[in-house]
């Protein structure tokens, strides 16, 4: 749209304030063009883009915070488990839960650590007695309603538990070694040393690894002879020619006594769980 002088009708020069024909002061009207459709779309895109970017940033922030919270929870659970020896739910330490046999001369003592933190003890293969509670506190195992606390150590793939007194014993054993029930001697062949005495007709144990039971040892003689396993006090642990019923652990001082037999006898001991020969000894009866 062109501008013309309202007084004389002459065409006005753009942006001039006076008509060049009649000299009258004029006021021109600028023509505003509508933006094209592509420009409108670009402006709309520029307006909507900040809002979309803000939503994406907010979503990323929420996800990042969630990941950090989850990582912190996992780390806390792991730290609590490592420091206290208990599960994240406050349950009993599963390393202890179950039945254990204490290596003692005579009938072994059975320990039963229940998952509800109660403790039972008693002679092997007999009725158990509830004697209190047990709990793990850092590196200590506290027994009998916290009356005594032991430092503990697992070995033999977690099947052997050694307890050592922490502080005053107050009449409690200073050292306790126990083996998980059903795992005695099943992992490796034990070391054993014996001496022979033809005067007393005995083969005597002088050295044996811990947690080896007589019922896990098979005794054969050549020629066939009558024998009996006896403890350090020379008391028979079973009838003659058998070890199957002996639940006692083998200890230094135990012996095999030969009866109603004369001559040279070769005695062979075999470890039943691994089917390995422990050794052979010759005795003159």
Q: How is this structure best described in words?
A:
The protein is an alpha+beta fold. Strand 5 and strand 6 form a beta hairpin. The longest helix has 48 residues. The radius of gyration is 46 Å and the shape is rod-shaped.
Characteristic key phrases:
alpha+beta; Lipocalin; 8-stranded antiparallel beta barrel; 4-stranded antiparallel beta sheet; rod-shaped
Summarize the structure.
Helix content is 17%, strand content 33%.
Write the layout of secondary structure elements.
Layout: H1 37-84, E1 98-102, E2 109-113, E3 118-123, E4 129-137, E5 140-143, E6 148-155, E7 160-165, E8 175-180, E9 192-197, E10 202-208, E11 217-222, E12 226-230, E13 255-259, E14 264-271, E15 276-284
Antiparallel strand pairs: 1-2, 1-8, 2-3, 3-4, 4-5, 5-6, 6-7, 7-8, 9-10, 10-13, 11-14, 12-13, 14-15
- How much of the sequence lies in strands comes to 25-35%
| Proportion of residues in helical segments | 10-25%
How would you sum up the major sheet?
A: 8 strands, antiparallel, barrel
What is the terminal separation in angstroms? Answer: 141 Å
User: What string gives the helices and strands in order?
Assistant: HEEEEEEEEEEEEEEE
Shape: rod-shaped
Low-confidence stretches: 83-90
- Count of strand segments: 15
Summarize model confidence as the mean pLDDT.
81
Strand order of the largest sheet: 1-2-3-4-5-6-7-8
What structural category arises from helix and sheet content?
A: alpha+beta
């Amino acid at each position: 749209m062109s501008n013309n002088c309202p007084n004389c009708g002459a065409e006005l020069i753009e942006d001039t304030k006076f008509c060049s024909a009649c000299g009258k002061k004029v006021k021109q009207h600028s023509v505003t063009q509508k933006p094209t459709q592509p420009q409108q779309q670009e402006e709309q895109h520029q307006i909507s883009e900040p809002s979309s970017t803000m939503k994406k940033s907010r979503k990323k922030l929420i996800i990042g915070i969630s990941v950090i919270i989850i990582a912190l929870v996992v780390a806390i659970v792991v730290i609590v488990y490592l420091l206290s020896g208990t599960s994240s739910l406050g349950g009993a330490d599963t390393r202890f839960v179950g039945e254990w046999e204490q290596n003692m001369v005579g009938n072994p003592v059975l320990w039963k650590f229940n998952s509800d933190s109660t403790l039972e003890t008693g002679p092997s293969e007999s009725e158990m007695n509830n004697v209190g509670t047990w709990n793990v506190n850092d590196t200590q195992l506290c027994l009998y309603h916290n009356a005594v606390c032991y430092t503990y150590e697992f070995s033999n793939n977690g099947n052997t538990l050694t307890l050592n007194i922490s502080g005053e014993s107050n009449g409690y054993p200073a050292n306790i070694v126990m083996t998980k029930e059903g795992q005695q001697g099943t992992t490796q062949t034990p070391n054993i040393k014996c001496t022979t005495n033809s005067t007393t007709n005995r083969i005597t144990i002088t050295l044996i690894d811990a947690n080896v039971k007589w019922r896990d040892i098979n005794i054969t003689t050549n020629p066939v002879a009558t024998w009996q396993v006896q403890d350090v006090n020379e008391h028979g642990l079973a009838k003659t020619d058998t070890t199957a019923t002996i639940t006692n652990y083998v200890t230094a001082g135990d012996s095999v006594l030969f009866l109603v037999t004369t001559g040279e006898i070769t005695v062979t001991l075999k470890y039943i769980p691994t089917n390995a020969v422990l050794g052979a000894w010759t005795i003159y009866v």
